[in-house]
Amino acid sequence: MIKVEEIRRDFPFFDKTKLAYLDNSATTQRPRQVVEAVADYEYYHNANPFRGLYDLSIDATERYEEARRKVAKFINAASDTEIIFTRNASESLNLAATSLSELLLEPGDEVITTVAEHHSNMLPWRLNAEKKGATVKYLSTNIKGEFSLEEFKSLLTPKTKIVAMTAMSNVFGRVNDVKAFAAEAHSVGAVFVADGAQSVPHSKTDVQDLDVDFIAFSGHKLLSPMGIGVLYGKKEILEKMPVYMSGGEMIDTVSLEEITYAPLPHKFEAGTVNAAGAVGLAAAIDYIESIGLDDIEARELALTEMALEGMKKIPHVNVLGGDTAAEHHGIITFTVDGVHPHDIADIIAHDDVAVRAGHHCAEPLHQHLGIPSTTRASLMFYNTEEEVERFLDSVALIRRLMGFHE
Amino acid sequence: MSDNRTFYNEVVLEHANYPAHKFKMIDPTNALRGVNPTCGDDITLQLKISEDGVVEDGSYIGDGCAISRASADMMLDLIIGKKVEDALALKDLFLKMIKDRKELSEEELEELEEAGALQDVSHMPSRVKCAVLSWHTLEEILDKDNDGKDVRGCEKNEIIIFSSSLFISFFVRYAVSGKNRV
Fold first, then answer.
1. Which secondary structure element, helix H or strand E, spans residue A334, and what is its range?
2. Could B181 and A357 be called an inter-chain contact, meaning their C-beta atoms sit closer than 8 Å?
3. How far apart are CA A25 and CA A14, in angstroms?
4. CA B8 to CA B63: how far, in whole Å?
5. Which fold has domain B10-151?
């Protein structure tokens, strides 16, 4: 059982503010342990990893590689060479899209993604498919955020080379059965790429059990600093893939005539790396594991239940997605009849509660649902019941404040 | 917190919820769409300008937050019946108040009539672009006129909106070729 008062002592953020921070799907706050690990690296262990032959550089390299091993273990990758550090999930997905498209797509081939994707798991595929003369097909979703495996099967053809799908939508919060979708994709020989930006921080991820070929996520949604992200990829595919960025430390040898690339994962990590960020991510994983992902999930489920049931009682409030808390994973996206989300978010902000308004980088999804934009509250295990109450009280007043009489 | 507090003042809510100028005009001489992509304000301003340069009628269609809707409605209240150059002068005054955060004189505030009720928005950074959307759209429509071009943007604009909605329904229901970029 999580003792939230104890947990919150790890986050200096809560000492200085009365803000109820409910925008955790955008980015999370950082615990002291993470910031201190980053500071320790920057103060005492900093040298350019992989370059120097002196102890300090070797130490920096070792800390960076230790972080990689920690990430590999966290998502149960078969090998730490399958973990590529990037800036964020967007960069991970751009790397995968650019390099995989180069490797796999011929004119007339097909890529499948879904209408519910974050722009970062839609646009890279569209732009790269266009370059290669391939077609992009879209799996639809219903108002609950469910994808139909039957519809997916009907989209698959021998020409399907890549499937890119979110493991958890940042609008609905539903965990998708990527294992089942990946298995279907594999049955026609397609590569399956999962966007794990929302799922990895909130539920256990076992890439070998899911049998996804790639998964991308960001550190900053997982208590770490901004600027560190991960692309997991299966070794046998990564090895065949062409380089994404070129430059320092991604080669074995270079002459004016020839290039031999470095082995995995360095082939995909051109230039000086974000070692401090990687160290911060490793500390965040340690922190999460010290609490336990099972306890985190249970705590977030309880908070979600409170928020969802509270929202159901407020007239003129419509929550997108499933009916039960288990289908939301802390994400409550909603509309209020007659009130624009920007006004909603401003009213809620006025009550010292931070939520997000707009289309949450999923504009095609909003078009598909016929809703111009929405407001989203997203919870984290460190949020309190009092914060959820404050949010609900604020939502309950919105219509009246906007001049509606009931 | 008290139950009878209001978030926006009554004038703003009145214009936002009960607009006088929100309708589709049949024969505008000028029309232009204004969009704030991040917050979802999307309005199309329609004007009927006479040959001697008077704004004879005006309306807006589309949707947005209360501030963008109220601002559009108040602006139309102000500029209908005015000469184009007077409408532009009012636009300058409004932008001075909201964007440049300049204190307006009492006479200047009076000139803006009810649009002066949006004064407080200048202190709400995240709402400034909502308040100025319709005014910038007005500026763009009228500036094009000043260049001597006759912007009968309505038909053209409707084609843009129509084709994008057509695209959306197409995009959602069917497989879309990667070549069909929006």
1. strand A331-336
2. no
3. 18
4. 18
5. Sufe protein. Chain: A (3.90.1010)
For domain A45-288, give the fold. Aspartate Aminotransferase; domain 2 (3.40.640)
- The torsion angles phi and psi of B92, rounded to 5 degrees, stand at -60, -40
Question: How confident is the model over B131-165, as pLDDT tens digits?
Answer: 999 999 999 998 755 443 433 333 333 333 333 33
pLDDT digits (tens, 9 = 90+) for A202-248: 999 999 999 999 999 999 999 999 999 999 999 999 999 999 999 88
Helices B66-79 and A341-350, axial angle in degrees (round to 10): 110
**Cα separation values, A247 from A257, A263, A268, A277, A290, Å:** 16, 14, 10, 20, 38
Please list every residue in chain A whose beta carbon sits closer than 8 Å to the beta carbon of residue B176: 135-138
Interface of A with B in 341-370 (CB under 8 A): 341-343, 346-347, 350-351, 357-359, 364, 367-368
Whether B49 and B84 have beta carbons less than 8 Å apart is answered as: yes
Position B178 pLDDT exceeds 50: no
pLDDT at B167: 38
Pick the closest to residue A164 from A202, A192, A130, A128 (CA basis): A192
**Quick one: what percent of chain A has pLDDT higher than 90?**
93
Structure tokens at A240: 């065949």
User: 3-class DSSP state for residue B55?
Assistant: strand
CATH of segment(s) A4-23+292-401:
3.90.1150.10
**Single-letter residue type at A21:** Y
Q: Nearest residue of A to residue B39 by CA position? A: A358
